[in-house]
Amino acid sequence: MFCLLAAQPAITAELTAFDPFLGMWAGSGTLWGKPAAIQLQWKRTLAGKFVSLDFEVSDPDSRKSLFAGHAMYPAGQGTWHDTNGAVYSITWTADGDNIVVEWGQPGVPIGKSVYSVRTGGEVEIADFVRNKAGSWREFAHYVA
């Protein structure tokens, strides 16, 4: 049995928008108005066709995990799985130094996460949920 693989570039051009975010990050912020610590890791995976994100929020004093999630980003779309048992379809766009991820579907919370590279080289993360009226409410904000 023979297998012929077409030569493809290792990294999808669109995924280069994630380049400034690749690596391990740790920082602090708030989750639902309470102090929180954050750790996240962005990395290329599966021959560069995806970028994955491992995301964990913990109590800054006890280090007890409060929430964790995992995302896989192919070009423009992806999936999110988390410790709340949620599995979301996600779409993402790059806007300058920002990655904007929209998640959820009708019948479950709909939200967005904005990942930004700050001037000092830090990563800023802001998470929002959309209310029934259609406006966005920030529920988490971190700097790593």
Q: Can you tell me the residue ranges where pLDDT is under 50 for at least 5 consecutive residues? A: 1-10
CATH superfamily: Calycin beta-barrel core domain
The number of helical segments is 0
Oligomeric state of shown chains = single chain
Query: Which radius of gyration do the C-alpha atoms yield?
Result: 16 Å
Keywords:
about 140 residues, 10 strands, about 60% strand
3D architecture notes:
It is a single chain. The chain has strands spanning 23-31, 34-45, 50-58, 65-73, 77-82, 87-95, 98-103, 111-117, 123-130, 136-143. It is mainly β and 144 residues long. The chain has one domain: Lipocalin (Beta Barrel), CATH 2.40.128. The protein has a ten-stranded antiparallel beta barrel with strand order 1-2-3-4-5-6-7-8-9-10. Strand 1 (23-31) and strand 2 (34-45) form a beta hairpin. It is globular, with a radius of gyration of 16 Å.
